């Protein structure tokens, strides 16, 4: 999606479609007030008569509007002015873009960011609205017939001046990272295999400036002693990969940020097999990987003055005669041993070796992202990613980056009091922590491999995709991570 700024007024801009927002009780502002005036008060009349609804996301298409250059005006309900916040702006934008889908309108001028939100600037509202436009316009089509593909809005202009260029540049980079992440997440598990992810990363690094990629094969992982990652991969016909993406935007000597993403391309649970119902959704178990790849692409596209390493352990978790089993003891790259009590707690096993691998970069900070636990979905639902870290400053930075992009995270405690839940007589730790505090004990497990650096863990089991509405992969937390990198780059 292309974003731009137009320095014209709402009524004089020539466009296939002008999108304006109206609040309840018809207190018209900005573009809506201008359109009302130019049309001799018709907008107000239709609002008063109830012909135009003002609930958030409701739409009314108005053609041949007197006094307005636009071919059509799409009036979007924005609810009560005093309740108007980031979520309402997103929902109103989504309503507009969904209405236009399949209607052969490719370019629009969007005036929705004019509506004020307490405490936020026009730049902020514009960036959020631009992201919502791109989110709404995305359609998964990779494995559909050509005839099923519908046209969507691809160019959005915003009313304003050159101060909007920076937020729109950021929005474009984030949106393209989000789209990449969503597409990878939505692809079926027979296509999106570990090798496929590795190949995608290779071609991404070739396209982007100052980027390199390296893919570690099974042999190399064996030589590194990644016994936990390899244990998970044993039952799969698809060989495991560890992808290393590097972006150099600062001095070679500057410590990088390292992002690590869980890339289980399909999670059957292994020998601790999952129930059949909804198992197809475990194709999304690589959404953490997809998000760190998306954030990597956004960081490189923005040419941020920072060094970034993105690590993607990509593995499939299958039941087989060769599978690892409950009771197995694996030796991690760190030397610590792990008793496997449930082969479905596989995410932490591939992450722990990738986290140990991160040590060699002497990072300024490491953030891992993973669809790690069903317990996190129970705790936080789909609206917040679960944030766990022993480092308060890093926690605050990530929470703030999430607020700033409306890609929010909520912190859970990672107190030592939870650690004994991982005790076992047979190894240095077991891979499950029992029924209570499942998201936290998974975080505790990872914390044992992250002593060498500042580290945070984001559990996106709830926020990473939306099975219910069939929106599919959300692309979260690409925006949060990109904002974090923007802030770290200074
Ligand atoms: N990928 C799942 C977590 C998951 C489950 C994400 C449902 C989203 C929806 C993970 O590998 C898993 O299976 N976790 C287990 C851990 C348990 C065995 C300790 C879980 O959460 O049930
Ligand atoms: Mn699992
Ligand atoms: Zn999993």
Helix content: 25-40%
- Biggest beta sheet summary: 9 strands, mixed
Q: Quick one: how many beta strands? A: 20
Tally of distinct domains: 2
User: Looking at CATH, which topology of the largest domain would you report?
Assistant: Aminopeptidase
Bound molecules: ligand BES, manganese (II) ion, zinc ion
Structural class: alpha/beta
CATH superfamily of the largest domain: Zn peptidases
CATH architecture assignment of the largest domain: 3-Layer(aba) Sandwich
Distance between the termini: 27 Å
Low-confidence stretches: none
Give the overall average pLDDT: 97
- Basic shape: elongated
Topology:
Elements (H helix, E strand, L loop, with lengths): L1 E5 L11 E5 L7 H9 L3 H7 L10 E5 L8 E6 L8 H15 L6 E4 L11 H16 L17 E5 L5 H22 L7 H14 L3 E6 L1 H7 L2 H7 L7 E8 L8 E5 L1 E5 L19 H15 L5 E11 L11 E3 L5 E3 L7 H12 L6 E6 L3 H7 L4 E4 L3 H14 L3 E3 L17 E2 L7 H10 L7 E5 L5 E2 L5 E2 L4 H12 L1
Parallel strand pairs: 1-6, 2-4, 2-5, 5-6, 9-11, 9-14, 10-11, 13-17, 14-18, 15-16
Antiparallel strand pairs: 3-4, 7-8, 8-11, 12-13, 15-18, 19-20
Helix pairs in contact: 3-4, 4-5, 5-9, 8-10, 9-14, 10-13, 12-14
The site of zinc ion (ZN) has 5 residues, from strand 10.
